Fold this protein.
Amino acid sequence: MPSSRLRRHVAAGTVTLPMSDYVIPEPEPKEIDERVAIELRHLADNAVLRGSPSGDEQCENCRYLLEPSRDISYCWHPKLRILVGASWWCQWWEAIPEPG
Ligand code: SF4
């Protein structure tokens, strides 16, 4: 199989190969992608994770979001540990504690 560099040249038209030699394959999910997708689906289902707020509660104002100023950030809740959107929500939402 040609290297990724050669594929880029072919795609850019700076190199041509005889049609019978090489056909750029369509990208498709691999076995690992299907496995990861299933794992993440279970994780999201267990958390009742939604891509929208629940009232005033959302990841942006949850204690488990690492960088609340970003649109997408890391949720460090021990049952999740994934990237989430600022306006998402899950059943483990907790308010940010008042500074003590
Ligand atoms: S625990 Fe839930 S609500 Fe809180 S940041 Fe993580 S995914 Fe969002």
